[in-house]
Amino acid sequence: MTRDFGAAVTGSAGDPHAQARAAREQPLLLHSMAVFRELFETVFRCRGVSTVVEVGVESGQVSSLYADLGATVYCVEPAPGDELRAVLDGDPRLNLVEGLSPAVLPDLPVADLYILDGDHNYAVVRDELAWIMANAPDAVVVLNDVLWPCGRRDFYYQPSPVAPEDTHPATTDGPTVWHDELTPAGFVGDGAYTVAEQAGGPRNGVLTAVEDALDGNGDWRFQIVPAVFGFGVLARTGAPGADAVFEAVRPYTSSRLIAAMENNRVALYTRVLQLQYEATARLEDAGRLTETVNAQQQEIARLESELDRTNRELAARRQEARARQEEPERTAASGPELSEAMSHLGRALSSRLRRTPPGRPR
């Protein structure tokens, strides 16, 4: 019996959790160009690539992939961090180019392969393609994010270098596949980028930029692998290796199964985003409720203390009132004794007066 499982991670009867391990080792949201390694291997094999210009460098992991396949790589990044600098400085095959892609492309060697994964908006991608098509007609161009959510909607990394007249009104809310409107529970940038308020229409989105570039250059061909936000391959008809590249990727670009799985992936992921947003909102509500309860408990304790003090004061006043009430009663009780003493004194005085002889001094 012949068994051919392709690239599937099947494990074995003795290791039944191999696929589960592979699944949990993947990030929840696949977004790196590294997942397309086999497609890059195909391009390198069909085209023969010695020089790569990579726009949008991520962590440097994918840059190393191109170098491992035999190319010298120019890594275009406008604001590299310290970690990225360290990675690129540690590999002599990788050359950091600081700047914005449309401006620095003329300063670099003409490449065999251009990877466009930088600012995902019409203006930037259109300028990149215009320069490449005019100055590197034999190159293969790979673009990421040609499908949802950037295909028909501009994303602007912040601070945005795009001229105001080339941008659409934008917001910090994000898209979701569950409805056409934007929402804070959608695919948001958390300060890293904003998105166009409206999708579609002219000069909006990465795929629209590619289509407009093709309209002006009829001898260029474009195909999309409908996975991980869309992997686009662009090459001029008759360019070295172009036919072989398109033939090799055709099983991917024509796969309804891959397209269905991508749609399911983004639907599931945006539902997770919604659940995360709702969970955060509930947590914030719970925090506010806890603060309210604590404040009310403190107010109750204050009122109880004030009530105790008031009760003590009331008891003292009642005791004082009783004492004042008892004083007249004691005075009233001593009245008869005083009257009797006065009567006794009067009788004694009268008796004495009667016993005193006349003419004696009294």
Describe what this molecule looks like in 3D.
This protein has 362 residues and is an alpha/beta fold. Helices cover 48% and strands 15% of the residues. The protein has ten helices and twelve strands. Helix 3 links the parallel strand 1 (51-55) and strand 2. The longest helix is centred in the C-terminal third of the chain and has 78 residues, at 256-333. It starts with 17 loop residues before the first helix and ends in a 7-residue tail after the last helix.
Percent of residues in helices: 40-55%
Uncertain segments are none
The tally of strands reads 12
Whole-number mean pLDDT: 89
Order of helices and strands: HHEHEHEHEHEEEEEEHEEHHH
In DSSP terms (H or I, runs of 4 or more residues), the helix count works out at 10
Q: How far apart, in Å, are the first and last alpha carbons?
A: 158 Å
The strand order across the widest sheet is 3-2-1-4-5-12-11
Q: Tell me, what's the shape?
A: elongated
**Class inferred from helices and paired strands:** alpha/beta
For the biggest sheet, the summary is: 7 strands, mixed
- Our estimate of the beta-strand percent is 5-15%
Radius of gyration: 45 Å
